Amino acid sequence: NAGVTQTPKFQVLKTGQSMTLQCAQDMNHNSMYWYRQDPGMGLRLIYYSASEGTTDKGEVPNGYNVSRLNKREFSLRLESAAPSQTSVYFCASSEGSRDYEQYFGPGTRLTVT
Amino acid sequence: GQSLEQPSEVTAVEGAIVQINCTYQTSGFYGLSWYQQHDGGAPTFLSYNALDGLEETGRFSSFLSRSDSYGYLLLQELQMKDSASYFCAYNTNAGKSTFGDGTTLTVKP
What we know:
Oligomer: heterodimer
Largest interface: A-B, 25 and 22 residues
Shape of chain A: globular
Helix content of chain B: under 10%
Order of helices and strands of chain A: EEEEEEEEEEE
Radius of gyration of chain A: 13 Å
Number of strands of chain B: 11
Helix content of chain A: under 10%
Radius of gyration of chain B: 13 Å
């Protein structure tokens, strides 16, 4: 099992450009999450999906959109990147009954200039 | 409001025991999780407490007191590889987790 995979690993964008971060999990988990982690800080929830076809805003959703394409895949889109979105982005998944135990992907390091 | 507090840094020597405290404030509290993150890596799940008391997993133990809104992670027989950041996170009835800002543990020889 690959667990949770994310692409790309690194990305540099100019202000105003758009991009989509991809995430996939092969553990048959219902719940999937997108977090951002700024230097020296904890993880902040951007969006959450409890099951295929459902999404819910987290703590910091502004400037982002998500798509739960199917049970395996959950993508995060930045429509018009801003320097404040420079961060490390982590995707995670969990079984619905064990949302306290999340499995994380390796992260995408995004720089917006 | 909703928040978690944990110390920003802790230093200990190899072979010692260290305790990382976490206090929280939230409604709809279900339980407290702990995660480890090495520099440049992804967080990995360590432990979870839903009920009061101690949970032991090898060298790591986690404790919760719901009445005090307090928990801690106890690391015994510290090894150099334990140098990492440790995050507490509370889980709510909405199925989401909120993470603290993390405690950086430095283990010295």
